[in-house]
Design brief:
Elements: H1 2-34, H2 38-45, H3 49-57, H4 65-74, H5 89-92, H6 102-110, H7 120-129, H8 137-146, H9 149-163, H10 167-180
Length: 189
């Protein structure tokens, strides 16, 4: 019986270290893809640079859930809790409408205030070819300043998956457009 008690703290510690490892790697990867410094990420997440650094190096002793969520959400990531072995029998019988692509959702988000909408194709072209026609520039500015970072991250992931374009290059293009359009969001500074 004492062996089990001796092992349990190690199991808990290993699970905690695994989670911090996953968070640290995900934050570092996304931050670098986005072209952000640790200082900039600290500013947009509301945390200190030393906390960001410790998370990325997985050397942080204790990371509260609120700090982890703030850090992850600032770069379009999230945490979830799932149960293992759970089945969803009731959901397997429901018909689910096909989801719109991230590009479609982003284009629709950016066009809410305008008479003419920006299409997903126009958005994709602007991010892939560096060609942003004047008629969609206001839409792009709204998108880059106001869309949730998680939606922007999904757009990057979608372009990467469909066009084979490096994620860092798509983030770079977004940043370039944000500078051209004089966007105010701190992540573009």
């Amino acid at each position: 019986m004492s062996n089990i008690l001796d092992i349990c703290p190690l199991v808990r510690q290993n699970a905690h270290m695994s989670t911090l490892h996953e968070i640290g790697n995900a934050v570092r990867t996304r931050r670098m893809e986005m072209g952000l410094t640790q200082d900039t990420l600290a500013r947009i997440s509301g945390l200190s640079r030393s906390t960001v650094n410790a998370v990325e190096k997985q050397s942080i002793g204790n990371l509260s859930i609120s700090k982890a969520v703030a850090l992850l959400e600032s770069i379009g990531l999230s945490m979830s809790v799932t149960t293992t072995g759970a089945t969803h029998a009731s959901s397997s019988h429901r018909k689910v409408a096909p989801a719109r692509s991230a590009l479609e959702r982003a284009a629709a988000t950016a066009g809410v205030s305008y008479q003419s909408a920006m299409t997903a194709r126009q958005l994709e072209t602007a991010l892939v070819t560096d060609d942003a026609p004047l008629r969609i520039r206001p839409h792009l500015q709204v998108l880059l300043d106001e869309a949730p970072v998680s939606l922007l991250a999904k757009v990057v992931d979608e372009i990467h998956a469909e066009k084979g374009m490096a994620k860092a290059r798509v983030w770079d293009r977004m940043r370039h457009l944000a500078h051209e359009l004089q966007c105010f969001r701190p992540m573009w500074q």
